[in-house]
Amino acid sequence: MRNSIISVAAYLLLAPVIGGLLDGIDRKISARMQRRVGPPLLQPFYDVSKLLKKQVISVTNAQTFLLMSYMIFILLTGAMFFAGTDILLCMFVLSTAAMFLYFAATVTGSPYSTIGASRELIQTIAYEPAVLMSCVGFYLVDGSFEISKIASSQISSIMYLPGVFAAFVFILTIKMRKSPFDISTSHHAHQEIVKGVTSEMGARNLAIFTVTEWYENVFLMGVVGLFIVNKDPISIAVAVAVIFAVFFLEILIDNTSARMKQYEMLKLSWTITLVLAGCNIWVLMLMIK
Amino acid sequence: MFEIKRSPWVLHYDGSSCNGCDIEVLACLTPVYDAERFGIVNTGDPMQADILLITGGINSQNAPVVKQLYDQMPRPKVVCAIGVCACTGGIFKDCYNILGGADTVIPVDIYVPGCAARPQAIIDGIVKAVDLFEKRLEKHKEWVRIHGEVHDDPVDENEVREVGTEETKTTTKTETAKTEKAKSETKPKSNKKGKKSRRKK
Questions:
Q1: How close A131 gets to chain B, by Cα (Å)?
Q2: Which structural domain, as residue segments, surrounds residue B106?
């Protein structure tokens, strides 16, 4: 009990720091991949602190409320995850958070924002099956949805779930809105729908969105780590190494691919989920029989 | 350490430019010049932008667009006219549809001359704009103190007009800048009565 309180507190306090640093590393590595010097490592923090100092222009007051709800639900997801509770419940709360983002974007009535929001929904549909497959996979391997039990299993879950892990890493690109799946919003300029979901978010609202994204990324990296962690403490170090490797892979994919059409993304992600995660789980069920 | 000048996000708008200056503006963001090392991001969204870069002259069709973009930008904000067309109207000045430089519709702070303006000059202009951006924060804080946080009215032009101040003197070389200075001297610097009657939220 005490451990879980400490880890929740650590998540709530440290996640924005780690998330911001990951974002900074992302931008720096991206710049180096393009043979540029790139912004300083702490650039994301400078950006957020500037956004908080700027004049607040909100199209509707409801947007701030909905964005705050989005943030709270993401915080709840992460807190539940690091408290070691039910992983299925975590993922459902995560979907609820995504809904609030959808509403925060559509409530403005801006066409760019609304198109971005509908694309965000398509992205949710694209990644949701793989997320649920991961939960089912964890249950089959460890006999429980409890994260604390999954994390203290005899053997790392990835040994039984390589296909599910690959599918999860694939949908991570969609979830993190990185190229080729930066469809609902883009971290780079010059998209045909301006900034998509974040088009009507300026100043403080964009800061809320950015910080929430950091929390979300740390949570997602936590799920990646959950595939590796077992009762052996050394596995935590391995998990951190795997997380960095996965993160680097995401940056590499981001920098080497052009954006896809939304329905192609849907087809591709469902195919990969079905083939990799589906077959993995099917084989696992045969083995258990 | 967390000064706002470390994170200037630019919005680039092409008025009726020949596209020469636009290519140079985008060249600033390429690996050769890498403006991102100053934290400069090309946002493409006025609500997230701090510095407005305008290339090309203003014509009767894009005048309301430029005004709209300027009004949508939250304070503090800085406007940078890139290239001689955006400064004065340039070679297109006498065309029937051209109203003149960017300062015919919005207050311009930094003028970057050139046809086309070179990336070095543009980056220099942006760096000057960034200093001005930092200075404007104080003004904005004072403004927030008077009017409160949330504000959705379009911004009164006279209130933010600072053409001919110390910062711009160093960068303005064009004729228009001089006329702007003369204009701003004749105008009252701030209309405090108007400020008080504005809607608060």
A1: 32
A2: 4-197
